[in-house]
UniProtKB/TrEMBL annotation:
Part of the Sec protein translocase complex. Interacts with the SecYEG preprotein conducting channel. SecDF uses the proton motive force (PMF) to complete protein translocation after the ATP-dependent function of SecA. Its main location: membrane. Belongs to the SecD/SecF family. SecD subfamily. Belongs to the SecD/SecF family. SecF subfamily. Residues 180-236 form the Protein translocase subunit SecDF P1 domain. The chain crosses the membrane at residues 511-531, 536-559, 565-586, 607-628, 634-659, 694-711, 817-834, 929-947, 953-973. The keyword Cytoplasm does not apply. This is Multifunctional fusion protein. Residues 388-489 form the SecDF P1 head subdomain domain.
Length: 1004
C-alpha cells in the first residue's frame, strides 16, 4: 500500500482536530451541570450563575484560554427539536416595498398588478418583481413604469424618461437591498436578545429569512422583537470629559455597595455550613463574578475598590508629555466582550440609576473595533430632540452607498437626505461644528446600538454627507445598509413558526440517543458475526467514522437536529457498505487462489470504482436536499454528506492500514465463519429471464398506488398546506373521537387530530384563520383549542409545542419539494450517463428511481389512517424520499459497475447482454443483501426507538430501502438488458451475437 505514512499522519491529525472541536462541548456541559447543581431547579438562579460565568475562563489549553461564552460558541449546538425554543421564517413584503416606492398610488390597475403578482408568486419560481412588471404591462400596456416610480425620493435612480427595463432593474436592486438590510437588522436584534447559539440564515433566491432561537421561552417577546420596524436615529453626544466625573461617582457608589455585600457574605460563610456555593452565587448575581468569592486576594480587593473601572476601562489617550489623559470624543470607556453583561448589571443597579442623570444615555457600539477585537466601546448619548429624544429620525435618509474618499482613497459612506431632512441636517451640523476647537460628534443609532459617531467638520447644506473614519470596506457596506435600513419601505412578517417546549425536546434527545446507541451496537454485532476478524476491522472504522462526524459537525458549528441524529444512525448502516464491497471482492480473490496479501490488495483495487460511484450518487442527493431543504432537514443533509465523506476515508484508508498492520504482524485475516463463508457464493438466479414477471408486479403495485393517490390523496403536513399545529400532552389517555368532536365544534370546521406517540399525546392541526399572521390571530386559535380541551373531564393537559405556516410559504415548500425530486433524478441520471457513457444505464436507473418514488407515495396514501402513526407528506417525507432515491442509485450503480467490468473481459464478449447482466446481478447479490440488511437493522431501530417526531420519516426510509433493493435487482439492471438488445450500439456485444445460443455463466 502506497502512502501509509501520509494516511497515518492524516488519521492522527484529523483525530486531534476532532477531539479539540468536541472538547468545547464537554467543557460547557460541565459548567452547565455545575449551574444546575447550584440552582437546584431555580431557573433564575441557574441563569444568573451562567451569566456570571460568561466572561470567566473555563478552558485553559496553555496556548489558548477560552471563556464560557467562547466555549459555548464552539460546542455542538442542539437544534430546537432537541433543546426546545423557537424557529421562525420571516418574509420581507416585496408587495409593500413596490407600493411604497411608488408613494402608495391609488391607481386601480397598479394595485391590481400588485395583487396578481402576489397570487402568482405562490405557485411560481419567478421573482415577485418580475411578476409585478409582467402583470403591470398586461393591465397598463401603454403606461410606462417610470410614471409611477419617478418620484422625488427616487430621483437619483429613476427619471421620467427611464425605460421599463431600467425601472425593473431599480426595483430589483431595491428588493435585494431591502432583504439584505432586513437580514442585518434582524441579526443585530437577535445578538442583543442574548440567545445562546442563535442561527439566522438568508434563504438565497427568496425574500425569506430563517431564524432559530434555541432555549427561548417568551414567544410574544420574540415576535415583537423580530417584527418591529427598524428604528434609525441621529443623536447628539457628550464629550468624554463631561461624563468621566459621573463615572467616578458611579464607581465609588458601587464600591461602597459591594463592600457591604462582601461583609454580609463573610458573615454568611461563618454562620452557614453549606455557604460556599450560596455566597458564590450571591456575589455573582450582584456583579462580583465567580472569583469574587476569594475576597482576600489582591485582584478581588482591587475589584471591590474599583468595581466599575475594573471592567470598564476609561477612554484615554497619550498627551505630548507621554502622560495619559482623557480622550476627546463620545466614547467614554471600553469593556471586554465577556464583561459587558457585568457593566450592564452595574448600570442597572438602583444606586447607580440615582447618580446617572435622565439626560444621559450610555449605549454600546455594534461590534468590536478591529484594533481591539475583544472590546466594545461605550458611548455617551445626549437626548436633546423632541421629547428628549434623537435630533433627527432615519426616515429622512433617501439613500446611502459605500464609496471611497477621492483624496485619500480610504473607504467612506455617502449619505443622501430628502429636502426636509437636508434643512434640519444643515442646522444640526452648523451647531455641532460652531466651535472650531470643540467640534461635536453625531451618533448613528439603529435599534439602540451605535453604528458610528462621526465628528462634524462643518455645516452640510445640501443633505449629502460624507462619513469617513477608520473604516474597512466591510464597515462601510454595513454602515450604508444601516442608513438605508432606517427608511426600509417594507416590513418583515413571520410566515412560519415552530415552538418546541423543553419537555418535547428532552423526549427527542432521549429517543435520538437511544436509537443511535442501539443501532450502533446492532451494526457492530452483525459485522463481527458475519465477517469474523475482518468485521472487527470494519467496526473500528465505523467507530472512527462516528467520532469524525461529531468532530466535523462541532468544527463547522453545525446545529444537531433530530433528523441530523437520524442521519448519523443511517450513516452507521451505510458506513459498512464500502467495507462490504471490499470484503466481498477480497473473498472472490481468495477463491481464485490468491494469497491473502494479494487478495487484500486486489480487493481494494477492484472495489474502488463501485465504492466511489455508489457514494458519489448518494452525496449528490444530499447536496440537492441541502439546497432545497430548510430547518431540521438541513441538519439531516449536512450530516448525511459529512457521513459519506468520513465513511469513505475510514473504510478505504483506516481499514486498509489495519489490514496492512495485521499482515506485517503475521496475524491471520478471517473474512467469514463457516456458516457465512458460502452465503450466496454460487447464486445463479434467473433475474433477467424472469424480468417481465417483475415488471408486471411492479406495474400492478404502482397502478394501485396511483389510484389511491388520485382518489384518497395524502395527509399533508402543516408545512405543505399551511395552518397551525399543536402538540398536546394529557395527564391521562384520551378518547381521540371525543377530542376531535370538541375541536370541530370550537372551530366550526373539521380539525385533524392524531395520536402522537402514545395514548396521552396528540397532534392537532387546523386551518382556522390560516391567512392571518397577527399575534391576535395566534391567541384566538390557541384560545379555541383551550376552549375545546377544557371540556374533557378530569384530564389536564399541556401544550408542548406549536407550528404555524403561512399558505404562501406552504405553496413554495411544495414547489421546492417537486423540483428537488425531479432535479435529483436528472442529476443522478446525468452522472450515470457521464460515468458509464451509455444512455441505457441512465434510463434504467431513472425508471427504477421513479418506480421507487411512486411506490413509496402510493404506500403513504394507502396506509394513511390504517397504521397507528402519522404518515404526513411534509419536509421530512421529502428528505426520506430523496434519501431513498440516493440509496436506490447506490445499489444500482454497484450492479452497473460489475456489468461494465464483465463486458470488458474477453470471456464475456460473446455472451448475450442479458446473460452478462444476470451474472453481474448474481455476483453482487451478497453485497446487496448484506448492505441492505445492515441499513434495515438501524432503520428498524430508528423507527421503533427514534420517537414520534420522526416516525413517519424513518418509516419512509425503511420501506424505501426495501423497495430500492428490490428495484436495483429486479428492475434497473434487467431493463438495461432490454434497452441494450434493442440498441444498435452495445458494449462488446452486437445484436447478432446477442441472438446466439446463450452459454452458461462462467464460474469463478
Amino acid at each position: 500500500m502506497q502512502g501509509k505514512g501520509l494516511i497515518k499522519f492524516l488519521v492522527v491529525a484529523v483525530a486531534i482536530a476532532c477531539l479539540y472541536s468536541l472538547s468545547f462541548t464537554f467543557v460547557t456541559r460541565k459548567v452547565e451541570r455545575d449551574a444546575a447543581a447550584y440552582a437546584q431547579g431555580d431557573m433564575a438562579k441557574e441563569k444568573a450563575y451562567l451569566d456570571s460565568m460568561a466572561g470567566e475562563v473555563v478552558y485553559d489549553l496553555g496556548i489558548a484560554k477560552y471563556t464560557y461564552r467562547e466555549a459555548k460558541g464552539n460546542e455542538i449546538a442542539l437544534g430546537l427539536d432537541l433543546k426546545g425554543g423557537m424557529n421562525v421564517t420571516m418574509e420581507v413584503s416585496l408587495q409593500e416595498l413596490v407600493r411604497n416606492l411608488a408613494n402608495n398610488p391609488k391607481d386601480e390597475n397598479f394595485n391590481k398588478a400588485l395583487e396578481n403578482a402576489a397570487t402568482r408568486s405562490k405557485d411560481s419560481q419567478a421573482g415577485y418583481i418580475s411578476l409585478f412588471v409582467d402583470e403591470f404591462k398586461k393591465l397598463n400596456p401603454n403606461t410606462p413604469l417610470a410614471s409611477f416610480f419617478a418620484t422625488k425620493d427616487n430621483t437619483a435612480h429613476v427619471k421620467p424618461n427611464s425605460t421599463d427595463s431600467q425601472v425593473e432593474s431599480f426595483l430589483q436592486r431595491e428588493a435585494n437591498s431591502a432583504i439584505d438590510n432586513s437580514f442585518k437588522v434582524l441579526r443585530t436584534r437577535i445578538d442583543k436578545f442574548g440567545v445562546t447559539s442563535p442561527n439566522i440564515q438568508l434563504q438565497q433566491g427568496t425574500n425569506r429569512i430563517l431564524i432559530e432561537l434555541p432555549g427561548v421561552t417568551d414567544e410574544d417577546r420574540v415576535r415583537k422583537l423580530l417584527q418591529g420596524s427598524a428604528r434609525l436615529e441621529f443623536w447628539e453626544t457628550y464629550d468624554n470629559m463631561e461624563i468621566y466625573p459621573m463615572l467616578e461617582n458611579v464607581n465609588r457608589a458601587l464600591a461602597s455597595t459591594l463592600k457591604e455585600t462582601e461583609q454580609a457574605a463573610k458573615t454568611a460563610v461563618a454562620d452557614t455550613t453549606n455557604a460556599d456555593s450560596t455566597d458564590a452565587g450571591l456575589l455573582a448575581t450582584l456583579g462580583g463574578g465567580s472569583d469574587s468569592l476569594d475576597t482576600d486576594s489582591f485582584d478581588s480587593q482591587l475589584a471591590l475598590q474599583n468595581p466599575l473601572f475594573n471592567v470598564l476601562r476609561p477612554a484615554t489617550a497619550m498627551a505630548p508629555n507621554n502622560q495619559p489623559v482623557l480622550a476627546p470624543g463620545p466614547i467614554v470607556g471600553y469593556a471586554q466582550l465577556r464583561d459587558t453583561a457585568k457593566v450592564n448589571r452595574y448600570l442597572e443597579n438602583p444606586v447607580v440609576k440615582q447618580i446617572i442623570p435622565g439626560n444621559v444615555k450610555l449605549l454600546w457600539g455594534v461590534k468590536p473595533n478591529p484594533r481591539s477585537p475583544e472590546q466594545l466601546e461605550l458611548y455617551a448619548i445626549k437626548p436633546s430632540g423632541a421629547e428628549a429624544g434623537p435630533i433627527l429620525g432615519g426616515n429622512v435618509v433617501t439613500d446611502a452607498r459605500d464609496d471611497f474618499d477621492p483624496m485619500s482613497n480610504n473607504p467612506m459612506v455617502t449619505m443622501y437626505m430628502n429636502s426636509e431632512g437636508a434643512r434640519e441636517w444643515r442646522k444640526i451640523t452648523a451647531a455641532a461644528s460652531a466651535d472650531p476647537n470643540n467640534k461635536q460628534s453625531i451618533a448613528i443609532v439603529l435599534d439602540g446600538v451605535v453604528y458610528s459617531a462621526p465628528r462634524v467638520d462643518g455645516e452640510i447644506p445640501n443633505g449629502i454627507s460624507q462619513i469617513t473614519g477608520n473604516f474597512t470596506i466591510e464597515d462601510t457596506k454595513d454602515l450604508a445598509n444601516v442608513l438605508k435600513a432606517g427608511r426600509l419601505p417594507t416590513t418583515a412578517k413571520i410566515v412560519e413558526e415552530a415552538v418546541v417546549g423543553p419537555t418535547l425536546g428532552q423526549a427527542a434527545i432521549d429517543a435520538g440517543v437511544n436509537s443511535a446507541v442501539i443501532g450502533l451496537v446492532l451494526v457492530l454485532i452483525f459485522m463481527i458475526a458475519y465477517y469474523n476478524r475482518a468485521g472487527l476491522v470494519a467496526n473500528i472504522a465505523v467507530l472512527f467514522n462516528m467520532f469524525f462526524i461529531l468532530g466535523i459537525l462541532a468544527s463547522l458549528n453545525a446545529v444537531l437536529t433530530l433528523p441530523g441524529i437520524a442521519g448519523i444512525v443511517l450513516t452507521m448502516g451505510t458506513a459498512v457498505d464500502a467495507n462490504v464491497l471490499i470484503y466481498e471482492r477480497i473473498r472472490e480473490e481468495l477463491r481464485l487462489g490468491k494469497s491473502v496479501r494479494q487478495a487484500v490488495a486486489d480487493g481494494y483495487k477492484h472495489a474502488m470504482s463501485s465504492i466511489l460511484d455508489s457514494q458519489i450518487t448518494t452525496f449528490l442527493t444530499g447536496m440537492i436536499l441541502f439546497f432545497f431543504g430548510s430547518g431540521p432537514i438541513l441538519g439531516f443533509a449536512t450530516t448525511l454528506m459529512i457521513g459519506i465523506i468520513t465513511s469513505l476515508f475510514t473504510s478505504i484508508f483506516i481499514s486498509r492500514v489495519i489490514f496492512e498492520w495485521m499482515l506485517t504482524k503475521g496475524w491471520s485475516i478471517s473474512l467469514s465463519f463457516p456458516w457465512s463463508e458460502k452465503t450466496l457464493q454460487n447464486a445463479n438466479f434467473a433475474f433477467v429471464q424472469n424480468r417481465k414477471k417483475f415488471y408486471a408486479a411492479s406495474a400492478i403495485f404502482v397502478v394501485i398506488g396511483l389510484v389511491s393517490i388520485f382518489t384518497k390523496g395524502f395527509s399533508l403536513g402543516v408545512d405543505f398546506q399551511g395552518g397551525r399545529a399543536y402538540t398536546v400532552q394529557f395527564e391521562q389517555p384520551i378518547n381521540l373521537e371525543e377530542v376531535r368532536g370538541h375541536l370541530n365544534s370550537a372551530f366550526n370546521a373539521t380539525t385533524e387530530v392524531k395520536l402522537f406517540g402514545s395514548q396521552d399525546q396528540v397532534r392537532i392541526t387546523t386551518t382556522y384563520l390560516i391567512d392571518e399572521t397577527s399575534d391576535e390571530a395566534n391567541d384566538e386559535v390557541l384560545s379555541k383549542v383551550d376552549e375545546a380541551l377544557t371540556k374533557l373531564d378530569n384530564n389536564s393537559y399541556e401544550v408542548l409545542g406549536s407550528y404555524k405556516v403561512n399558505p404562501t410559504i406552504a405553496s413554495d415548500m411544495k414547489a421546492r419539494a417537486v423540483y428537488a425530486g425531479l432535479f435529483s433524478i436528472l442529476v443522478i441520471a446525468a452522472y450515470i450517463l457521464i460515468r458509464f457513457r451509455k444512455w441505457q444505464y441512465s434510463a434504467g436507473a431513472a425508471v427504477s428511481t421513479v418506480h421507487d418514488a411512486l411506490v413509496i407515495l402510493g404506500l403513504f396514501s394507502l396506509l394513511d389512517g390504517v397504521v397507528p402513526f402519522a404518515l404526513d407528506i411534509d419536509q421530512h417525507f421529502i428528505a426520506a424520499l430523496l434519501t431513498v432515491v440516493g440509496y436506490s442509485i447506490n445499489d444500482t450503480v454497484v450492479v452497473f459497475d460489475r456489468l461494465r467490468e464483465n463486458l470488458g473481459l474477453s470471456k464475456h464478449k460473446n455472451e448475450d447482454v442479458g446473460q452478462t447482466i444476470n451474472l453481474a446481478i448474481n455476483k453482487t447479490l451478497s453485497r446487496t443483501v448484506i448492505t441492505s440488511l445492515t441499513v434495515i437493522f438501524v432503520l428498524a431501530v430508528l423507527f421503533v426507538f427514534g420517537g414520534e417526531v420522526i416516525r413517519g420519516f424513518s418509516f419512509a426510509i425503511l420501506i424505501g430501502i426495501i423497495v430500492a433493493t428490490y428495484s436495483s435487482i429486479f428492475l434497473a439492471a434487467p431493463m438495461v438488458a432490454d434497452l441494450q438488445s434493442n440498441s444498435k450500439t452495445v458494449d462488446s456485444v452486437d445484436v447478432e451475437s446477442a441472438n446466439k445460443t446463450t452459454p452458461k455463466p462462467s464460474r469463478v
